[in-house]
Amino acid sequence: MAFKYTPLEDLQSGYAELRKSFQDKKTLPLKFRRAQLLQLARLFQENSHDLAAALHADLGRHKLEIFMPEIGPIVTAAVQAAENLEEWNKPEKPAVEEWRSSWDTTIYTCPKGIVLIIGPWNYPYGITMLPFIGAIAAGCTVIIKPSEFNPTCAQLLADLFPKYLDSSVYRIVNGAVAETTALLELKWNHIFFTGSGHVGRIVAAAAAKNVTPITLELGSKSPVFIDAANTDVDLAAKRILWGKMQNGGQVCVAPDFILVPRAHQDNVVEAFKKAYQKFWPHPKGALDPLSELGGILNPHHHARLTALLGRTEGNIVHGGNTEEYRRIEPTVVKDVRLDDSLMEDELFGPIIPLVPIEGVDEAIQIIRGGPVPLVIYVFTDSEETKNKFVESTSSGTLVLNDTFTQVGVHEMPFGGSGDSGYGSYLGKFSFNNFVNRRSFINVPPSFEPFLGYRYPPYSEEAFQA
Ligand code: NAD
């Protein structure tokens, strides 16, 4: 199964076909959308083992970490969207002032048109399909551009799509920068981008030329505060290590660094060691081939992470071993300062820096001094600490006492804020990206007797009334 980039001429003709399908109202009937949503669920159900094998080939990820956050939620979300289609697309009748009650005032939910979804490599199915489900439910035609760094997954999706879905309305386009640049030159009715802040800015600039609305789901250096005097430190370490090690630490919502009261730093280190022993009890620990720890994407990222570890002025108190290629042991570094190499950028790997601080107020001050993160994690049983974070910080999500789990709650919007992006998705929030709320007003001719006051010549009496 060789990985093929979509030729530029096919990209143009595919786009033209999808635009025509939208104009021909192919995606307008809810019956059509429902059938396509169920077909998408079928695609992921019937091919789940091949899809998991492809992801394992590209990223070396364990199958539990594929079925739990990606394949299972896609099937569920597609079926739920099919069940909610009528409700989501229902015209709304807003309450209006009494004197306008004889007018027809309706808000219609209209598909935006032809939309583009661009995905990153770290969650090649979930991050493209969960917005895609919203776009199908909304009645849009869709091109999806998966990351070229998941060649096996991207090719499998390109092969499976035409077997399950109507290719005159939904297409996979494969390629790298040249193909994405060509796509961005076309006029879209919405662009949904997930990836780095650097490329997000390129996408936003291209979209601005056509006044195209966009959703930007970007990266983040998401902080953790352990309120060690008011929480179960062992439980906190276990939940942080689990969330951090999903996909080898290459997760947009990975707990990036930990702010911990100085007096408790060593307790936290011990708690991480205990959690590590429970998760990877083999003699060779997490580097054992049997551990199936998520692999680092490629030699470039492996070299980037090992160089960061080489430059850190903190103390490596656990881990630090690396394989030539693919894996880095979960590594805990203590006494990390804010100007350390590990604090420069989003880590996107299995390194846990501990930054010792005085307490909650300093944690909040540090977080407020940096870019707005995608998520802030706080481990505490204290109502006061919780309230301080609610009132004094900003982020896409605020999670208490767990990590990573928020992306499974589809009843809430998931997205960034400020530097970590704008717009959101999951469940109905995915759908909202791809519809226009169109206000419709009909002022009936029979209402004319009540409108006399507004016409010239203007009179002082009308103004008095
Ligand atoms: P990336 O920005 O390098 O690539 C994303 C997509 O953009 C890919 O499809 C790629 O082909 C395309 N692209 C790359 N360079 C381009 C260019 N010059 N012009 C046009 N298109 C271009 O991101 P990545 O390395 O694939 O993913 C990792 C990043 O994504 C991390 O920062 C991570 O935090 C972020 N991310 C965010 C979320 C979220 O929900 N906020 C989720 C997952 C990943």
UniProtKB/TrEMBL annotation:
<dbReference type="InterPro" id="IPR016161">
    <property type="entry name" value="Ald_DH/histidinol_DH"/>
</dbReference>
<dbReference type="InterPro" id="IPR015590">
    <property type="entry name" value="Aldehyde_DH_dom"/>
</dbReference>
<dbReference type="GO" id="GO:0006081">
    <property type="term" value="P:aldehyde metabolic process"/>
</dbReference>
<feature type="domain" description="Aldehyde dehydrogenase">
    <location>
        <begin position="12"/>
        <end position="438"/>
    </location>
</feature>
<dbReference type="InterPro" id="IPR016162">
    <property type="entry name" value="Ald_DH_N"/>
</dbReference>
<dbReference type="InterPro" id="IPR016163">
    <property type="entry name" value="Ald_DH_C"/>
</dbReference>
<dbReference type="Pfam" id="PF00171">
    <property type="entry name" value="Aldedh"/>
</dbReference>
<keyword id="KW-0560">Oxidoreductase</keyword>
<feature type="active site">
    <location>
        <position position="252"/>
    </location>
</feature>
<dbReference type="GO" id="GO:0005737">
    <property type="term" value="C:cytoplasm"/>
</dbReference>
<feature type="active site">
    <location>
        <position position="217"/>
    </location>
</feature>
<dbReference type="InterPro" id="IPR012394">
    <property type="entry name" value="Aldehyde_DH_NAD(P)"/>
</dbReference>
<protein>
    <recommendedName>
        <fullName>Aldehyde dehydrogenase</fullName>
    </recommendedName>
</protein>
<comment type="similarity">
    <text>Belongs to the aldehyde dehydrogenase family.</text>
</comment>
<dbReference type="GO" id="GO:0004029">
    <property type="term" value="F:aldehyde dehydrogenase (NAD+) activity"/>
</dbReference>
